[in-house]
Amino acid sequence: MRQIARSRAGVLVGLAGASAVLFGAFGAHALRNVLDPAHRELWHTAVEYHAWHALALVLAVGLGNGRAGRCAVFAFALGIVLFSGSLYALALGAPRWVGIITPFGGVAFVVGWVALGLALRPRTD
User: For the whole model, what pTM was predicted?
Assistant: First the structure.
């Protein structure tokens, strides 16, 4: 990646990781007595996928090359927003139709992993 793009991607990694920790702490402390067990489980799933894919962003930014690497960064970030974001919203009482968004985030995660795999292939120049 070009230096400016890598710098922006680095900021994205920092935001993704920090927000995963903050959302996890918020759920564990502020929402502990607010959410019922089913909604706490939704929140937990959202945080778990958020955190794992923040780490995947680190790999994509640090090791991903070329177009596939950029695709992986974009797909992981989009997956965090769509998948985890929709689960956070559902846990907080959003209408059930918001759940329609969740699978699109899951697909973005899958695309991100495939793109990362392609980006990590040895170059054959």
Answer: 0.91
At 21-54, the pLDDT tens digits run 999 999 999 999 999 999 999 999 999 999 999 9
Rounded CA-CA distance 38/70 in Å is 36
Distance CA 109, CA 81 (A): 11
- The Cα–Cα gap between 91 and 96 comes to 10
Distance (Å, whole) CA 45 – CA 101? 15
What is the DSSP annotation of 44-99? Answer: HHHHHHHHHHHHHHHHHHHH--HHHHHHHHHHHHHHIIIIIHHHHHHHTT--GGGG
d(CA 105, CA 82): 4
Q: Which of 27, 85, 15 is nearest to 57 (CA)?
A: 15
Least Cα distance to 20 among 83, 94, 98 occurs for 83
